[in-house]
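Case study B.
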Amino acid sequence: MNKKKVVSLLLATMMLGGVLAGCATTAAAPAASAEPAKEEAAAPAAEGEAAAPAAEASGSGTPGYEGDGGEFSMYLRSTFIDWINDLEWYKVAEERTGVHVNYQRGADEEDATYPEIDQMVLSGTLTDCALAKQDQANVYGMQGAFYNLKPLIEQYAPHIQAYLADHPDYEKLITAEDGAIYGLLTENANALKSSIWFYRADHFEKAGVDPASIKNVDDLTDALRTLKEYYKDVPNYYPLNGREEVFRFITLFNCGNSADDSGVKGFYYNNVEWGFDPTAAYDMVETMKLWYDEGLINPEWVAGAFSEGDWEGAMWEGRGSISYDFYTRPATFNLAGKDYDPDYNMQILDFIADKDGNPVRQQTPTLYNEKRATVININASEETAKDIIQWIDYFYSEEGQTLANWGVEGVSYEETPEGRKFLVSYNDELAKPDGTMEWTFLSDRFTVCKPVEAEAFFSFNDPAVAEASVRLFTEENLRHGVNIIYNEEEATELATLTASLVDMSKAGMVSFITGKTELNEENWQKYVDDLKAAGYDRVIELQTEAYNNTYK
Amino acid sequence: MSAKKNKTAVQAVPKKPLGERIKKDIKKNYLLYIMLIPGLLVLVLFKFGPVGAMVIAFQKFSAFKGISGSPWVGLDQFRRIVKDPYMLKLVKNTVILAVLSVVVVFPVPIIFSLFLNEVRNRRIRSTVQSASFLPYFISSAVMVSILYTLVSPSYGLVNKIIEFFGGKSIFFMAEPGWFRPLYIILQIWQTFGYSTVIYIAAMMAIDTEQYEAADMDGANRWQKMWYITLPSISSSVIVMLIISIGNIFSVDLDRILLMYNSSVYETADVIQSYVYRIAFDSAGFPDYSYGTAVNMLKSVIAFILVIIANKLAAKYSETRLF
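Model:
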């Protein structure tokens, strides 16, 4: 065989090998690419070392823990893994229980992880457990993709069992049509709070606006006008500023969604916190148009083209004074605010009453997060499934909850006659760079499926935010979202209908606000009719049907 | 009877059976065929294989059950398309964008390469050609970011110029009417250099004697361009046109999603963005079957257009793609 032939055959073989290697599916891939939960955490911070005595009782014998250690893999949003890797209390939990979770990194964005789970289910490469949507848990679970957790809980998880007994609504919510439980939903810390109003106190003082004078929408508009007039020479200054979703004022104008025995209004399916009723939004659109016309609200935000980074820049650089956003944001702005302006001072405003002066209850997400269902892959061994359920069960025990919500006594918290107090500071811990071990207790970030303790959740905060949380997030001020169970047909039809309907309704409202469509009764009626023709009534019908099936 | 005999005799004489001919050819060129195997495998696995997976358009597909286990629903998904209230708007937006892509984008590199070919300084010509090719390597995300920066109503250069001349700032990214022009401008910017390379390569192959003869006949540059250069590259132009028509519905989804916001929904929502929302960005349970059915319909229309374009090209210019 001559040299050319040898080279040709060699090249063809290599290319063929490359193609075949590219086609190969490796069932072992998750394990191979799985990331141990912070191996580098072998060099713990001083506090971590102080917690070491707790590790002596690892595995069986640990109070609250029924298992004897183990190791399993879990697919999770990569951001969650990064946060988990830095958590001191999580490391203590692994030491105490002898459980080690090999995390497989998912997409950065939570919503992007669900299609990845679909693909892993399809290709048979799903990790031992994963965080899925409840829809996925139930649909794939009933098809045989996931373990029925019910017998596992009965046999191995007494604390979860007790929780189910205490929370029958929860058990009903997570029970699929065939009576099995395929996914354990985590309690939603975000349901304990809503977004809040906050403002540049230094701007208010200079412009002569008294924050206490802002009681209702008209007061807010007056304050915005005063601020605009005072800062009229600042280029691109808009007193009311925000990021991404602009329709945040729905509760002020009574056009938010709702679900109760009288029916379901507005977009509720997968949109509990910010879902709105476009057919009732005329007043909101009218007021927002007024703000828009007078330059009181950022037009780029109204257009939906103002990102989080744009908003932060505007609020730091003095191109905005008031926002309605996540409750820890004021503290975040203050942390870097002085770098931009020595007078920088972001403060929290009380809730504003509606147009008629009536108190407004702020909508919260649902009590259980339907996008965070822990599922166990049917291909995991029974021993692994037992290890997983016992690991979760630990966090439903008193000891596990104390560890996850408060940390280690004498290290991160202390018992006082007034109750537990954190020994660690929110601002100090949050200021640590990424990759550094820290004592943080931000229960809105997923770690393990577990209950949330409101007192600990609010206490671990910037002092001003902690104070405002206790004052503002009362039952009188909040209206909790309701978990509704949708069957597969309802979920599929709603997902398809809302895929365009929500965007269509927002686009219509933006068009009125920006003046592209004249806002009058006739055009508004046409807008509502168009929405109905495009399936809005069907959305309401499906949601109401599902609500009735859930609660009646 | 005799006619039939004659016919059989005629058929039998000139050619051996196809199988035998292939066998002989393989034996003769077996090394070439071995070299072909990896390419064929790639073609079958990654091109033909996924096309086969489109059968889920006729199923109620479950990712867990797979294609073999999911129930068949016949044409149910396609019936849903007909009843879908958004479909008309989506098709309209997609077709307008697609037609603009062909009508506006397609001629630009031809004109550019014709002019570039007239540049006599070789160094300038190659530098300009390379520079025009560079945007092809810029990602859609970076490209849209640059666009945002340029047309921002707060600090964008374009609006500063408009204001300098006494005009009023325009929020380009939030104007439904500006979505399509901006999309097309980005399309031209990104792809015209790539097509130019192909046309310039075709121009390089033109026999210089034709230009010398034209010079002797007293033809000016425009006439040479029109009567020699353009007809000489017509084959390349036709092939590129058929490819463009084949891709007529293949809008750049990345670019659209990055440019998409509530304000431009009216003009920016196209079949692909709808399919993406249904199958991969679903608020609830993803409907892969319906998404595939919508996409399949789009592919079938594009396929028919390619066949028609190919036939027309063969009829009027004696050039065809296949």
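Chain B is about 70% helix and 0% strand. The remaining cases will be described in the next quarterly update.
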